[in-house]
Each structure stands twice: as structure tokens, then as C-alpha cells.
Design goal:
The chain is of the alpha+beta class and 158 residues long. The protein has 4 helices and 4 strands. Strands 2-3-1-4 form a 4-stranded antiparallel beta sheet, covered by helices on one side. The longest helix has 20 residues. The protein is globular.
């Protein structure tokens, strides 16, 4: 095993209770084992998408809408990356929490950067980015829209 580094993490009591329940359900020997697995999973997911030139993604954010200026900051960030934002939907979860679902499309590196920028805003409770390649990795196709037409590859039934 490589050298171990120690670091501390500050968590709300309720989040720590949920994490401990996650550790118990997953039969992790220690919290450290659970954190290592979660980090490896997240880093692997991020790495496979990093080289994709065109991805489609959904970013789900759960946040406290009472947090001062948070919604304004979220909107500003989305507007600054307007070429990536396809659509968004706002959902009221309860008196304090809202959920924002954002559909994204573009180069994986830019999509991940935008997701990180939004996820890192103070007041975001949860963020999940789900990424899918928009074009097959061995495909010679390029992202749409573009000015020229492709010949039809199959006929549609009438």
C-alpha cells in the first residue's frame, strides 16, 4: 500500500449519521475505506469522460434557497456558460430546499468545469453530474447542429 496521508473533514451531524449508516450498510471496515471507495468511483467516472469531445449531461443540484444570493450566483454561472446549458428545471422540494435540474451539452472538460463551479457554491447541499457520450467514441460524426445535412442512413416507415 502506498503512503497514507491524513486529513480532516468537517461535516454536519446529520450528514455524518447518514455516512455512518452508508458505511454500515456497505460493510466498510472503516470510514476511511468508504471514503477511499467513493473517491475512486468519482475519479474514475470523471476520468473516462474527460477525453470526450461531445457529451450530454444532467446536473442535479439540491440547495437551500434561503442562502443569500445563491440563486443569483447559480444563474450568473449558467449565463456565463450559455453555450453548454441546454435547459434547466426548478423544483421546490420543501420550505427550505429546492432542486435544479440542468441539461448540458458540449466538451466533457467544459461541462465538468461548469458542474464543479456550480457544485462548489456555498449553500449547495448535493450535486450530481451524470455524463454520457453524445457521440460514439469511434464515430466520425460530429455534434449537431451544423449547417450541412447528412444523407439518411435508414428509411423511416410512413
Amino acid at each position: 500500500m502506498s503512503d497514507l496521508a491524513r486529513f480532516s473533514v468537517s461535516l454536519e451531524g446529520e450528514l455524518l449519521e447518514q455516512f455512518d449508516a452508508f458505511c454500515e450498510q456497505g460493510k466498510f471496515a472503516t470510514r476511511s475505506e468508504a471514503i477511499r471507495q467513493l473517491l475512486r468511483e468519482k475519479l474514475t467516472t470523471t476520468a473516462w469522460a474527460a477525453d470526450a469531445k461531445d457529451v450530454a449531461a444532467s446536473l442535479t443540484l439540491v440547495y437551500d434557497h434561503h442562502k443569500s444570493h445563491l440563486t443569483d450566483k447559480m444563474i450568473d454561472v449558467q449565463h456565463a456558460h450559455g453555450e453548454l446549458v441546454v435547459s434547466s428545471m426548478h423544483v421546490h422540494l420543501n420550505h427550505d430546499l429546492c432542486m435544479e435540474l440542468i441539461a448540458l451539452r458540449g466538451p466533457a472538460v467544459k461541462v465538468q468545469h461548469l458542474a464543479s463551479e456550480l457544485s462548489g457554491l456555498k449553500g449547495i447541499h448535493q450535486a450530481q453530474l451524470v455524463v454520457a457520450r453524445a457521440v460514439a467514441p469511434d464515430s466520425h460524426e460530429h455534434p449537431h447542429p451544423h449547417p450541412h445535412k447528412h444523407p439518411p442512413s435508414h428509411k423511416h416507415p410512413h
